[in-house]
Design goal:
single chain, about 260 residues, alpha/beta, Glucose Oxidase, domain 1, nine-stranded mixed beta sheet, 6 helices, 15 strands, about 20% helix, globular
């Protein structure tokens, strides 16, 4: 690749011709964490503890200890996260090829549908209708489901637990199969706490965005924000997780590059 390509990108970033949009939540103790039935292990909430703050514990520096689960806040799901991806040696956060962390994004706007139906499911017909307007989803792209779910301002409304389970929009199993088998995407991303629909425990297979995507060595992004600031096509995502030895995922700061 000619070096001037990278120099033009650097200049475009400096002049604002290419903008950087932050798609990440701020991590804090109130950050919602996915809720599982009591018989399963639970992820701890985010915790932060001050070590020193320019005081007698450390007069010239400020820093903190933090503790959290790998899948807290805006986070990355590696293939090894799900049992269907357990045999991929290159499926951990420290072994996934770094080139997969930079890829184009297609944003499917389902915000109106999700506002009308909090259990809305994205189906292949919705994807094909989107492609009729914006073109075919390219191989190796991220597909992001915009629902404006990140605009829910309390943990309770964000998790949206009901008597029959979480009422949260997401993809159907057929939509995930379509993206894997017909479009060979890099991965799937959402604004909700996890990549599956809230009622996906009752799908066949259960939790298809995990079961099928990770079984096909695809990646996941959850708890994204600001998808309303991205165009349907043309953005490039930068999504490197922490390089945790044998990590199943990690919090990360997802950045999108878009034409200014």
């Amino acid at each position: 690749m000619p070096t001037d390509v990278l120099m033009r990108l650097a200049e475009a970033l400096a002049t604002g011709a290419v903008r950087v949009i932050d798609l990440s939540q701020t991590l804090q103790p109130s950050t919602p964490v996915i809720q599982l039935p009591p018989q399963f292990g639970a992820s701890n909430p985010f915790r932060i503890e001050e070590i020193s703050h320019y005081d007698d514990r450390g007069p010239g520096w400020y820093w903190n200890n933090i503790a959290l689960g790998e899948h807290t806040g805006t986070h990355f799901d590696a293939p090894i996260h799900w049992v269907t991806g357990k045999d991929y040696r290159d499926g951990y956060t420290d072994t996934i090829p770094a080139g997969r962390f930079v890829a184009p994004a297609c944003v499917i706007d389902c915000s109106k549908e999700a506002a009308a139906d909090e259990k809305f499911l994205l189906e292949p017909a919705h994807i094909e209708a989107w492609e009729g307007k914006h073109g075919r989803i390219p191989k190796g792209a991220w597909v992001l489901m915009r629902t404006d779910w990140s605009k829910r301002t309390t943990p309770e409304s964000f998790l949206n637990m009901k008597d029959d389970g979480p009422h949260v929009p997401g993809p159907s199993a057929a939509a995930i199969r379509f993206l894997i088998e017909q479009r060979d995407v890099n991965g799937w991303g959402v604004e909700a706490v996890g990549t599956d629909a809230g009622m996906a425990f009752g799908f066949e297979p259960a939790f298809p965005a995990h079961h099928l995507m990770h079984g096909a060595k695809k990646l996941g992004l959850a708890s994204l924000t600001n998808l309303d600031q991205l165009p349907p096509t043309g953005a490039v995502l930068i999504t490197p997780p922490l390089k945790i030895k044998n990590g199943s995922g990690s919090p990360l700061r997802v950045l999108a590059l878009v034409a200014g």
